[in-house]
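Hello K.,

You asked for the raw outputs rather than the summary table, so here they are, unedited. I folded two proteins back to back in the same session to keep the settings identical. This is the first:
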Amino acid sequence: MKKLLLIFLLISQVFFAQSGFEIGNTLYQKGKYEQAVKAYESVLGSKKHSVELYFNLGNCYYKLNRVAPAIYNYEKALLINPEDKEILNNLKFAQKLNIDEVKEVQKVGFSKIIRDFTSEFHYNTWAWISVAFSTLFLLFFIGYYFSQLTLSKRIFFFGMFVLLFLLIISVSAAISEKSIFDNEKPAIVFAEITDVKSEPQKLSSTVFTVHEGTKVFVLETLSNWKKIQLTDGTEGWIDKNSIREVK
């Protein structure tokens, strides 16, 4: 009896989430963005997440000219599918509504070359590339082992070393990108305007001011304060209620 009840609850939750998503889509098409937001949020409330859900929710907030929620939901969608061009495009449009124009610090030298190379693909993509190289390495090893001709043996032997080298590079790139992803703690400023302090206390001096929709990175948490860093490297302390972490 308990198993049947659990199955019924699971089916009902899936149906509720699906119907809520479809209702949201219908409302969005009719231009009823506020109601569509409520429908999509109800799906999130049932612990259902998807790229389409966050993307559509971001679109609704963008139509309502609500910068922070729009950027936040686009960023959430990119966590699931970081290479979706449509999400990236809409995110850029939403970011243009942001008051703060924070430049990104560009790395220089060898570290820049390495970062530019590894960031070409998501760590999952690098992992699949590694699997492909390892499969090719195995096939070349089999070819080398069973080949009777000297020339073909040399070709397979040389190919094995090339593939091994490429495999090491792809695995290293995957590890590097995964490490960066795990260590980064992006957040979006939800307060319309807020001061960033030099120390985690209200009476400390203001370092700079940020507005709704600005993307920051959380470095440290202390009581009700979070130490943040902007993409230009500027750091300071902000009230934790002023931001919402993406992951």
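The second followed immediately with the same parameters:
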Amino acid sequence: MDELKQSVQLAVHEQKDPLLIYKFEAFELFKAMIDEVNKDVISFLFKGELPQETQNTIQEARERKQEKLNIQKDEIPNLDERSAQNRAAGNTQQQQHVVETIVRDRPKIGRNDQVTIKQVITGENKTLKYKQAEHLLAKGDWVLVED
């Protein structure tokens, strides 16, 4: 592309539009690059070989799959045995963390929910959005009135 840029600058002396020449030559270079890439890809694909599986190997794979599915119920360890094994190996495995559920005294207030607040000193009531009342409640002069 740098060579193309240099050669296009000479087109000014020929009184031709260098931008048009640059676009045309760049497109020709792009087409040549695409042709080269296509040739390389096709050459690579023709040189590759697909593995061929015989009927015997396919049948063996099916039989192995069936053997895995035919495990008897008594071969699977029950839950009591598993829990005993887990307790025995408890030192090496991490114990599961118990997740506690948060229980709220009252429902959560959304930022755009209308709330009524009351001023502690004068007893004045205001109804406004919670996001506007937050800073008043934080100061401590106002309290939230439950409906």
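The longest helix spans residues 18-47.

Happy to rerun anything if the numbers look odd on your end.

Regards,
P.
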